[in-house]
């Protein structure tokens, strides 16, 4: 049984280590990180997933931002340990966190990433929403958690250091659990190697710099 729960300060080192493993060196130089500097994360939506042995297998984080004055969530980074990728853990974290965001009353989410992956969760290109340069506009994707929440919204994405980032929803809440059908050993599957992970990270970096 895997457990999903909001991260705590004690998890910080493990999560940063997982991100360092899954992304190319220099990930914090990406332009999207400028939106996160000096801003508290949305604590209730920063989730981690541990396997039955307690090992960290995946993590997702969210920050508050503004787009032309409108509140929005910036999704990312999300990462799954290389030995567990392709087994549904990333998808589970996406669905679980987005559902929590909806329950908390957030209306809209954006991210910088691969449309072929994120479209399965309902994300689509956001025309006219500008991430700090250099960011490839084709990779700026949005999701509406409320009806027409992105309609008519365009402009620069900016930091939101004054945002309310806790809702209290997570206080006392039971963690989520999932029962995977195929994650048995924690070893790489046949045909999967580190190149896939490296390619994902490099792709994100290239795009934000292109
Ligand atoms: C991207 C990532 C979070 C996905 O998590 P995951 O648990 O491996 O993915 P899931 O098991 O939920 O989904 C697997 C599916 O997503 C697809 N997929 C994974 N990464 C993809 C990408 N970058 N582009 C398109 N499809 C992708 C797989 O091909 C697979 O497709 P299928 O269902 O048709 O077989 C994970 O692979 C990862 O951590 N990658 C390295 C870090 C990264 O690139 N993070 C995202 C940028 S913030």
UniProtKB/TrEMBL annotation:
GO terms for molecular function: acyltransferase activity, transferring groups other than amino-acyl groups. Pfam families: Acetyltransf_9 (PF13527). Residues 2-146 form the N-acetyltransferase domain. Gene3D superfamilies: 3.40.630.30. It comes from the Bacteria. Residues 156-210 are annotated as: Disordered. This is N-acetyltransferase.
């Amino acid at each position: 049984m895997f457990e999903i729960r909001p991260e705590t300060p004690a998890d910080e080192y493990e999560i940063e280590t997982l991100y360092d493993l899954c992304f190319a060196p220099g990930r914090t130089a990406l332009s999207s990180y400028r939106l996160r500097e000096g801003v508290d994360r949305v604590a209730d939506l920063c989730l981690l997933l541990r396997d039955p042995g307690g090992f960290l297998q995946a993590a997702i984080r969210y920050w508050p931002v503004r787009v032309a004055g409108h509140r929005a969530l910036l999704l990312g980074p999300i990462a799954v340990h290389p030995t567990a990728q392709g087994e549904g853990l990333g998808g589970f974290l996406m669905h679980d966190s987005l559902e929590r965001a909806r329950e908390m009353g957030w209306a809209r989410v954006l991210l910088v990433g691969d449309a072929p992956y994120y479209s399965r969760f309902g994300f689509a290109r956001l025309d006219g929403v500008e991430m700090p340069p250099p960011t490839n506009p084709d990779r700026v994707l949005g999701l509406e958690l409320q009806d027409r929440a992105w309609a008519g919204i365009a402009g620069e994405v900016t930091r939101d250091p004054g945002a309310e980032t806790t809702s209290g929803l997570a206080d006392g809440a039971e963690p989520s659990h999932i029962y995977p059908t195929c994650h048995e050993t924690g070893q790489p599957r046949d045909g999967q190697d580190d190149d896939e992970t490296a390619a994902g990270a490099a792709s994100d970096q290239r795009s934000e710099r292109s």
